[in-house]
Design goal:
single chain; globular; three-stranded mixed sheet; 200 residues; mainly alpha
Length: 200
């Protein structure tokens, strides 16, 4: 799929594996992801989906760190979590929030099949072993959207690899090399004065 990657993402990666500051960044990233995806939802459904998205995205950061530990690049690890989210959106009929079309679900799954199977993740169970013991907050589904799905925010044709858009707008297949001088204060939530908004 197609994602963005900039200094904020590198700083978040470093922060999430750093004691103390990691929790601050994680909470901010959950808020950021929930806000971004709620903006894609129909306004009448936003409030009822918020708690579920908070719980879901919080759980995906465990998958993100696990993927990094398994040797995946930052872009790949983040793509894994976005794929998990899109599985969840599809299952609930929240098709307007999806980042790629529903007919690419299987292709995205197969690219990370080894990781997904190792952690009991399926399209039907997007969190697998990363599901919190208490579960995630429930939210009303809209299964009728699956009859004739609309994906106004989806970009198809990028299912065969991770396509990374850098800060200059260039598209790099597979992602960029990690900078040497990553500063954790560039991560969301660490230094509010320097925080920059952007894609998740």
């Amino acid at each position: 799929m197609k994602i963005r990657q900039n200094v904020r993402h590198w700083a978040a990666k470093k922060s999430l594996t750093t004691p103390v500051v990691g929790n601050v960044v994680r909470n901010k990233l959950v808020d950021l992801h929930t806000s971004i995806f709620l903006d894609k939802a129909n306004e009448t459904h936003r409030e009822e989906r918020k708690d579920h998205l908070d719980d879901f995205f919080d759980a995906t950061f465990d998958a993100y760190v696990e993927a990094l530990d398994a040797g995946f690049t930052e872009a790949q690890a983040r793509e894994i979590t976005h794929i998990q989210a899109n599985f969840d959106f599809y299952n609930r009929g929240w098709t307007e929030m999806m980042e790629f079309p529903g007919d690419e679900l299987e292709t995205h799954y197969e690219r990370y099949a080894d990781f997904f199977r190792r952690h009991d993740i399926t399209i039907d169970d997007p969190l697998g072993e990363f599901r919190p013991a208490e579960g995630t907050a429930d939210a009303p589904a809209t299964p009728e959207n699956l009859d004739d799905p609309e994906h106004p925010h989806a970009e198809g044709g990028f299912a065969d690899d991770v396509y990374v858009e850098d800060e200059e707008g260039n598209l790099v297949v597979g992602g960029q090399h990690e900078p040497q001088d990553v500063d954790v204060t560039d991560a969301p939530g660490v230094d509010e004065g320097s925080e920059r908004e952007g894609e998740a």
